[in-house]
Structure formats: structure tokens, C-alpha cells
Amino acid sequence: MKRLTVLLLCLLLAGCSQKKAPAETEVPPETTVITAPTDAPRGLYDPESTLEDTTQGALRVYPLRFSTITDMRAFGEDLLIFSAGEEATAITCLSGDALHVTASTVVGCPLDTDDPSLQIWGDTLAYYDPNRRETVVLDRQLKEVGRMALPEDLQGRPLLCADRNTVYYCTADTLRAWDLETDLHRVVKQMDYGGQTVSGLHVNDTILQCSVVEDGREKTLLLSAQDGRLLYEGSGSMTLSTVADRFFAALPAGGLETLVFGRGETEAHILSPRDLDACAYYLPEKNGAVTAAPQENDTLRLDYYDLETGSRVSTLTLSGGALPMAVEATASGQLYLLRLDGSYDCEVIYRWDVTGAAVAAGDESSYAGPFYTSAVPDRAGLAACQARAAEIGERYGLEILLWQDALEYQGEDCRFGKEYLVPVLERELTLLDGRLARFPAEVLSQSCSHFTSLKLCLVRSLETVSDGAFEDVNGFQFFRDTDAYVAVAVGREAEEALYRGLYQVMDTHVMSKSMVLYRWEALNPQGFAYDMGDKTQRNSAYLAEKDRAFVDEESMAYAREDRSRVFARAMLPGQEALFQSPILQAKLTMLCEAIRNSYGLRKSPQVFPWEQYLQIPWAQQD
Fold it and tell me: What is the spatial distance between Cα 462 and Cα 65, in angstroms, rounded to a whole number?
């Protein structure tokens, strides 16, 4: 078990000092306040909700019949609901067990709640108004109590400290601290990244998080707020929050996020939820986390994890696959979810009792373990994964390469990121086994016969050359001498990337055994020609739903790429609407015919997975 050396900030958690008492700021004229929505005596609570009955009281339901809702945030014991328009944002405060409307206001700018300048400290709220270049402070009643104009050379967004005495902000070449009492602007660090902004304040405002852009790529920096010392540097964006001596971080890891948490200077842990590719929501107030994962039967599974023990305490299944717009815990630990609910035809707040007797129990497994790094990985776990990969590969007649073995086969035109987390690889191997099992044995064996070997590389991230520069992709098929390779980046898009890469291997066999696909280009719109990788030639008009001719713009590059993307989508659930297009239905029909002819399957009564969207089943075709 290792300390969180990746973040370093945990070394500062125990000894950081407290800030001095808040200073008063000038009180300007009041913000315009709107009339609160009509509020019944019972508040927004719906006691007749069927969900409350079907979950044995685990959920209480509060329909929001306001204007379009965009987000929800905890506000001490209360909740704030945001309704953002193009020029203004309405904020409504909901209080009490029944969620009564107790305050509301309109701010004169669109307020994105992902904006780090929106900060909430118990009963105070601050945000940045880019139209007036001012930071505004609101009180418990959503009344304006402070407003400060930011410097003209501000770049990105400013962040106000919790004590309301200091504003941190970036210029084009510096990170600065503005002391509001003395009106002095101190240079914290000289920085010139071309694009940079302050994106977080942590550990009693002693650690600054900055988002910067270098060589066209986003990076995250953690810096000392006092002297600008670099504490952490990583690629991509990072979600980080700290409460007292606890920290919670979601680190980018290719197509997934690594969920890391810990306390003080103790060892850091990683959360590996039941659905590793689920959307995760940290709840620092409860020292817990919620994950949400859409299921194939158009439902949403929610799991709640206790980070103190790593156990999955409870689970819920809701109808519809819509993900929560927000998951928040109030100061008292009440857990709320905001989600679009089709049965109400509006956004709904659910209050979820995750510990009550009526809650569906989780299980006894532990979903938290030591946080390993690439430099010091779980070698025993990785060896077990390699052994399992070898067993799966032997069954299907191919070679599955993991960890550092996969990196041996990257070339000048592709770069692989090493996946070293055992829980991720364990999950991906289980999924891969099921996905390969969907192919008839003769399809994989006959396709592999054209090559010395077929190697499947599971990697964390994948970059290929496009227009002379590397860009991120989720899958890549290539050849080296007489070997065929399919590289897949683990995560939410791994399944489609696998099917696309495998079809490109299959295409070699199909084109050698059947003449059907030689008529492929005749199915395209009149005058269309594949652009051979010249993206400037692509026309989005070919993606119009009614007469859609291609799955996506990448399909317009090459005929083989086009076929592989039709095949991959045909293997996935929920693609009925896509194949309503006459052109795509004709392409799918031709592809199915060519595959049956090439693998000796023409008379098979089986309906193969890629045939599920044929409007006329194969058995009924002439």
C-alpha cells in the first residue's frame, strides 16, 4: 500500500493553518429578486409517488415544475436549484423535509455550475459574472452582499477564498493573489502556457489547482498558494475536493477515471466500483460515493459506497437510462439526486435513504484497495491478469496483450498508454470474453488464418497520427509484417472499438472470398467519393437522419472504415433508429450477405449479432 505520492497534497493536510476571520466587503444595491414559484403547504414532496412504494420508502420524490433545470448544489442544510438561460440564471433555494421554496433570485449572466468560480461555503455563495467582469457574493437569502471588479488583464476565471479576503486569478503570464484588504496584487508564480486559469482551491485555501493548455493539450497543476511551488502535474483535467483531512480525486485514465481517496497522511486508496465505467459522484460530506450505470434494459443502476470500509452499502434500479444531473449531500448527510424523470415529464429530486432498513442491501465485497502507480504496480495482480488473458486468447485463437507487453507493438504512427490497474484489467477481460463469444468460431479462426497471428492489445489510452499530429482514438487496427493487430483503449467505448477493429481483420477474408462487397460504393450517394483521410472533404449533410449515408464522419475516409463502423454499430444495442436510414439498411444487408457467403454460413438458421437490425431477416431474403 502506497502513500498518495501522485498528488502530494496529502502531505500538507495535517499541518495546514486556518485562515483569519472573514472580512466585510462593500454591500452594493440589491440583486433583482424574482417571485418564488407557487409552493403548496407540503412543499415539492409528492406523497403519492409510486417510487416511494416500490422502493419501500428508500426514495422520496420531489417533482420540479419550474423552468428548465440545469443543476443542483447543496447549500448547507438546503438545496440550490439552477435554471440557466442564454443571458441569465435563476437560483432557487429549497429547505426543510418537504423542500419548500424559501428564496430565489436571478443573476444577470448564464451560470455554468461546472465553473470553479461558483463556490459555496455553508450559507454563502460566490460566482463570477463575465459580462461585468465582477465576482459577486450572495448570502443565505440569496441577497447580494458583495461585488468586486476584476483586473482588466484577467485570463480565465477568478476564485475567491472562503474568508473573502483574497482572490486568485491568472493573467497571460502570471498567477496572482489579490489581497482585498490592502488592494495589493501579489505574483504567486510566473506562468505562460498560452491558456491558463485557476480551477480550484483546496486544503483551507492553501493549495491552488490550475488548468493550463500546453502544446494544444490540457494539463492540471497543483501549486502552493503561498509561493507557487509545483506539487503535482498531470495530463487532462482532474476533479479534486478536500474536506477537513480527507481528499477525493478523479484522475483521468484514458477512457476511464481513477477514483482515489484518502485521509491525512495515511495511505491512499482507489475505488473500483461494480461498474468501472459508471459515472461517479463523490460525496465528501458523507465520506461516500455514488455511481450510476445505464443498463441494457433501459434502466439505471445506482450504487452507494461507504469509503470508510470500501463496501457497497445499497443499490437502486430506476426506470429509464437518464444519468443524474447532480448528486449532492447536505451538511446533515441527506443524499439527493437530480434527474429527468419521464413519468413526471420534468426534472425530479430524489432523496435517497441509503442506510434505512428498507434499502436494498449491497454485498460483502470490498470495492476499495491500495492505490498503485505505474512505477510501483500490483505485480502479482497483473501476473494473474496475464494468465487469464492467455487462457481467453487460447480459446479464441488470438493473443491478448496487457500492461507493458502491449506497449512493445506500438509504432511510429501510434502510441499506447499502459494500463496497470488490476481492477480495470480484470473487468475488461471479463467483458472481452463475453464479446468474443458472440462470434461464431469459424469467423475468428478463418479470419486469423490470413495472418501469422492476431494480437489484441488492451491499453489505457491510444493516439494515432492524423494530419501530422497525434490525436486520441479509442481503437486502431494495423499490420506489422504478417501479423494483424487490434489495439483497444479500455473504457466506455471499448466495445465498439473492438468490433470495429475485428471487422477490419475480417474484411481481408471477406474481400478474398466474396464479390458482394465490390458493389459497396454504389450504395453511397451520387457523386460521393471517399476522401482517403482528407478531413476537409467531409460533408455533414450525409449524416442527416432522414437520408443518413454514414455512421459518422470517420466513415467517409475509406470503404473499409465505412464497413467496419456499420458492422460495429450493428453489434451494439439501441441502434434501431440509425438503421432506419435506407442507405445504412442497404449497407448492413450487403455486409451480412458478404459475411455469410465468406464463412460458409449462408444456409445457417442462426441470427447472428450483426444481423439484429435487418428489416428483412436473412431467412426471408431472396
Answer: 44
Which H/E stretch holds residue 407?
helix 403-407
Which amino acid would we find at residue 587? K
Q: Rounded to whole angstroms, how far apart are CA atoms 241 and 472?
A: 27
- List all residues 6 or more positions away from 83 whose beta carbon is below 8 Å from its beta carbon: 66, 67, 68, 69, 70, 89, 90, 91, 92
Q: Which long-range contacts (CB under 8 A, 24 or more apart) does 140-144 make?
A: 140/76, 140/103, 141/93, 141/103, 142/31, 142/33, 142/91, 142/93, 142/103, 142/104, 142/105, 143/30, 143/31, 143/33, 143/105, 144/27, 144/28, 144/29, 144/30, 144/31
Confidence of residue 297 (pLDDT cuts 50, 70, 90): confident
Q: What is the pLDDT of residues 157-208, one digit of tens each?
A: 999 999 899 999 999 999 999 999 999 999 999 998 988 999 999 988 999 9
Give the end-to-end CA distance of the chain in Å, rounded to a whole number. 64
Backbone angles phi, psi at 505, to 5 degrees: -70, -45
Strands, E assignment, 371-474 = 399-401, 414-417, 453-459, 461-466, 469-472
Tens-place pLDDT, residues 81-136: 999 878 899 999 999 999 999 999 999 898 888 889 999 988 899 999 999 999 99
CA 219 – CA 210 distance, rounded (Å): 8
Q: What is the DSSP string of 277-320?
A: TSEEEEEGGGTEEEEEEEETTTEEEEEEEETTTTEEEEEEEEES
Which 8-state DSSP code applies to residue 263? E
Amino acid at 149: A
Does residue 447 or residue 373 have the better pLDDT? 447
Quickly tell me which residue has 463570477 as its cell: 128
Cα dihedral 303/304/305/307 (nearest 10): 150
Pick from 281, 213, 256: nearest CA to 491:
256
pTM: 0.81
* Rounded distance between C-alpha atoms, residue 203 and residue 241, angstroms: 9
Count of CA atoms in the C-beta half-sphere (13 A) of 148: 22
